[in-house]
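call fold(seq) -> tokens
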Amino acid sequence: MILRRIFVTGMWLLLTLAVAAQQPQPKLSGDAIPNLGEVKAQLKHYYDCDGKNGCYEADLETQAARGIEFLKQRAKGANGEKLAIVLDVDETCLSNYPFYVTTDFGHESARFDMWAMAANATPIKPMLKLYRAAREMRYEVFFITGRSEHQRFATEQNLEKAGFKGWAGLTLRSSADAGKKAAEYKSAARKKIVDQGYRIVLNMGDQHSDLAGDPQAELSLKLPNPFYFIP
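ret:
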């Protein structure tokens, strides 16, 4: 009798579990969030341009070509104006991808400082082409970067080594800029350029915050950067 009860109870439990397994599963809020490991793999495919997730280099070339063409057309109507372009540095002119691969796409300030101070970032080639074209057309080039002032010498050295020569100015964050949002800091830096009598024809950066705020350039172009975000 006892064995029969155990058998019946066991069968009932198995039947209950089978019915429950067939019920539709509730959707959880976290289900809509992409798996982090898969996203990181997509980033690598995108950078490597292996055909699985688009091509980073091709997207860079597209935006650089748009910038060059605009500069050509704008130069025709210069009429003696002091024309300038503004460029961001990291992921716009210099690539830090080798560094971010070592941190699994995380940002570690102390380690990035060591990387920046080593001045070994490689040029983003489509932007180097744009830079050289702009200089040939006699545009003055100003760099505005979120790097700190103590990194000035290394940044200048890295830009020179990467082929960016003959710029008109390089703005880095001073202690007075600490805590400012990127858009606030960069728009204030652009205003200083305008106050010198320049007309900013083109502004290019990899973050929306590189381009936000006033004064605006005649044309602002954003480069792709799915690797990190700066508000």
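Strands lie at 82-87, 94-95, 122-123, 140-148, 169-173, 198-205, 219-222.
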